[in-house]
TrEMBL record:
This is Zinc finger protein 791. Residues 23-50, 51-78, 79-106, 107-134, 135-162, 163-190, 191-218, 219-246, 247-274, 275-302, 303-330, 331-358, 359-386, 387-414, 415-442, 443-467 form the C2H2-type domain. It is found in: Nucleus. Belongs to the krueppel C2H2-type zinc-finger protein family.
């Protein structure tokens, strides 16, 4: 006697077993009422995947996921969301998607009470309590709680990203990631916050955003107690304590805690500068640099000092300037007490005390304390002068020289002496001038020991000895 579909379905509600389960798995002892179910289950242990996609070669254990996958190639999405119009390839995906709009989260964790909209999410979450990490990297053995995590990790080894954007060429591991990315080009933001109306490109972004309104921060660091609203931010924070830097450069061996830092670093080797200014053609490593650069053309200076009303094109320049008023910075040099806004700036400064110069020019062997200095130095060999004056056509190797030159045309003199009111277009000229008031004379004649505040005075004096 065959069991009807209704009877089989009723078991999911009652848990009542009308028949015995004669098919028992030898691997995990799970039992089944039907031979077909048992045979399908066995594939999870043997690794057999009989359903193969003719388009891309991907294989599947079960027929239903295989059918769903095939739709990704033909583009068939017969199930449409009535709320936002999003189309999906299968009915189960539509049901899960609809919960974004209804807020329904039927799967609750028995350990911590956290609720989820789909069963796969709660299964992955439960592993954070059990410590189970069933997905191991074949390259390095590192284990992960989800299949998505291990695939993301594998990029660090093979760089494989099969799904490519037709607009900009950016590649992704998963088709879902590509779809979300494509919305950058189309401007589509289908997920809208009911509280404030802000719209988002992907469902995870709106879930994280909603925590701003609820104040929920479900990810808590066991080391320091700091809480986070988003899991990626939490994972990156944990690396501060563990010292883990999973993203390693194949060129120089330098390791990074964030994939974004790693990608930016890679460009120092490839020379890739994907962000181009449409005004002057200058290219940049990352978008923020381009945004700041554009202000040179527009004249926009959004950061204003309340102390002296001076304005700046970037937050970094503004913060650096503020130290001149406050004398305060979070990173202090133990040797001389000088303060810095950024830890990287402090590290570079410390090399002036240690004498360390890790960046060496392959052309002439000259060494430098920071990477930006060697990049500029290389121009003395290549002859490159990227900073050209539109007024007179004169070109410069250094941006500071170019900025100083431009003030000759504009008449701007931003460096003003508090003692006598004299103004200067160059910071170096201003520094030399202040020595007169401070009676500072750092330049000494090697012949007679007489000291001078500026090099021109020393040169004049030296002529007396050379007569």
């Amino acid at each position: 006697m065959r069991l009807s579909s209704l009877t089989r379905h009723m078991r999911s509600h009652t848990g009542y077993e009308l028949f015995e389960k004669p098919y028992k798995c030898k691997e995990c002892e799970k039992a089944f009422s039907y031979l077909k179910s048992f045979q399908r289950h066995e594939r999870s242990h043997t690794g057999e995947k009989p359903y193969k996609c003719k388009q891309c070669g991907k294989t599947f254990i079960y027929h239903q996921p295989f059918q769903r996958h095939e739709r990704t190639h033909i583009g068939e999405k017969p199930y449409e969301c009535k709320q936002c119009g999003k189309a999906l390839s299968c009915s189960s995906s539509l049901r899960v998607h609809e919960r974004i709009h209804t807020g329904e989260k039927p799967y609750e964790c028995k350990q911590c009470g956290k609720a989820f909209s789909c069963s796969s999410s709660i299964r992955v979450h439960e592993r954070t309590h059990t410590g189970e990490k069933p997905y191991a990297c074949k390259e390095c053995g590192k284990a992960f709680i989800s299949h998505t995590s291990v695939l993301t990790h594998m990029i660090t080894h093979n760089g494989d990203r099969p799904y490519k954007c037709k607009e900009c060429g950016k590649a992704f591991i998963f088709p879902s990631f590509l779809r979300v990315h494509e919305r950058i080009h189309t401007g589509e933001k289908p997920y809208k916050c009911k509280q404030c109306g802000k719209a988002f490109r992907c469902s995870t972004s709106i879930q994280i955003h909603e925590r701003i309104h609820t104040g929920e921060k479900p990810y808590k660091c066991k080391e320091c107690g700091k809480s986070f609203s988003a899991r990626p931010a939490f994972r990156v924070h944990v690396r501060v304590h563990t010292g883990e830097k999973p993203y390693k450069c194949k060129e120089c061996g330098k390791a990074f805690s964030r994939i974004s830092y790693f990608r930016i670093h890679e460009r120092t080797h490839t020379g890739e500068k994907p962000y181009e200014c449409k005004k002057c053609g200058k290219t940049f490593n990352y978008p923020l640099d381009l945004k700041i650069h554009k202000r040179n053309h527009t004249g926009e200076k959004p950061y204003e000092c309340k102390e002296c009303a001076k304005t700046f094109i970037s937050l970094e320049n503004f913060r650096r300037h503020m130290i001149t008023h406050t004398g305060d910075g979070p990173y202090k040099c133990r040797d001389c007490g000088k303060v810095f806004i950024f830890p990287s700036a402090l590290r570079t400064h410390e090399r002036t005390h240690t004498g360390e110069k890790p960046y060496e020019c392959k052309q002439c062997g000259k060494a430098f304390s920071c990477s930006s200095y060697i990049r500029i130095h290389k121009r003395t060999h290549t002859g490159e002068k990227p900073y050209e004056c539109k007024e007179c056509g004169k070109a410069f190797i250094y941006p500071t020289s170019f900025q100083g030159h431009m003030r000759m045309h504009t008449g701007e003199k931003p460096y003003k002496c508090k003692e006598c009111g004299k103004a200067f277009s160059l910071h170096s000229s201003f520094q030399r001038h202040t020595r007169i008031h401070n009676y500072e004379k750092p330049l000494e004649c090697k012949q007679c020991g007489k000291a001078f505040s500026v090099s021109t005075s020393l040169k004049k004096h030296m002529r007396m000895h050379n007569r």
